[in-house]
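Changelog-adjacent note: as of this version, every example in the card shows the full chain rather than a window. The one below runs 434 residues end to end.
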Amino acid sequence: MKRRMPAIAYILYDWAISPLPTLHTTFIFSIFFVQAVAPNEILGNVWWSWMIAACSFTIAIISPLAGADGDRRGTRKRWLLFMTLISAGATSCLWFVLPTSELTEQAQNWMIILTLVLSYFAIVTNDGVYTFYNALLPAVAERQWLGRVSGWAFGIGYISGLLALFCALPVVAPGMFGLSEPLFGISTDDATNIRITMPFVSLWLIVFSIPLFVFCPEPEKADEPNFKETFNSGLKAVVEIPGLLRFLVARMFYADALVVVFAMGGIYAGTEFGFSIGGATAQNLIVFGIVLNLTSGLGAILGGYSDDFLGSYLTLRISLICLALSALAAILTSSLFVFWIAGSCLGLFIGPVQSCTRVLVANAVPRAELRSRIFGLFMLSGKATSFIGPLLYGVFVSVFETSRAGMSVALILLILGFILLAKVPPGQKTYPNQ
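Full-length structure tokens:
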């Protein structure tokens, strides 16, 4: 591979951004909010899911617009830097969130609002970077290496989340190491040992994102003279590239399912199987997070090789089938052992789905100056309706008072996404303006 250093820097950025959603959105902080900040677990589930829904709606609106602007002015890396800094700043400020059990009612309300607002900005910007990060992929690797670079990026990201969890173990769950108190003498008063994980992942994000801004090239900017023409040309390209519009619609559904799994998976494990951020079951929660990240990283790396050698589309379809079966098992079982197996299988096939989808879109768009706006629309397809998944999760939990009903939303969306996929991948015919 000729572009070795840019590719390494590109992969390292996934290493930088992955601990944040792992420790904040899926594990640790989301559970902390539900169990220690919200007045009860049902309301915590509902409020967190609706906040995730608001994030998805916001990303759906801003991603196509920001992508078109990045293409027109050639500022993809500047947009990336801006969102990275906002994400790190909002996450680090979650340090100020305290448990509410001993606070006045007014203070409790403000603490809940502070948590949801800061989490909103952290998630919107952390997800928003993918509009520009994905667009850089063809600029850092030759076509025959795209699957492996994409797979390694996702895989390294999951390994990064795993390592971050390992770093958090002696602090969040010191009992796993036979310690009577958190490492470094960090206090458990006011959940200090839990809150400190947020500044930790913010620093991680800043430090490991630096190589991308130094070594990755900025693709050429678009020829369109104004924003409107740039944006419209992206819409036109989506329609003209064979099969791309249908693919983005299908992706809309299965991406919505992954949003539910990532955003609510830790909460689901907590409410249905008793995993918690403190006490005897803290070990189960942390180990579950480690297993999920380990299998996801392995799946993404193997999926990258399968992508290049067996084809992105076949790998994607097989992975979606396996995801649906794993989700079904996780929903139906009351056995902790079966849940562990199902959760591990979910991780194993999430990575290939994410990696293959990115490569399919990158290969379908032949002109470099179109990629940010296309990936902005790609983010739109992943976020335009993704607020519906967490929203329905919250509604189902409210109505049926069980997280199993809420998690069934993910299974339904996976099945719909698979059904809507065409028989052939997008962009097989020649793009008319190439």
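Structural remarks: DSSP finds 19 helices and no strands in the chain.
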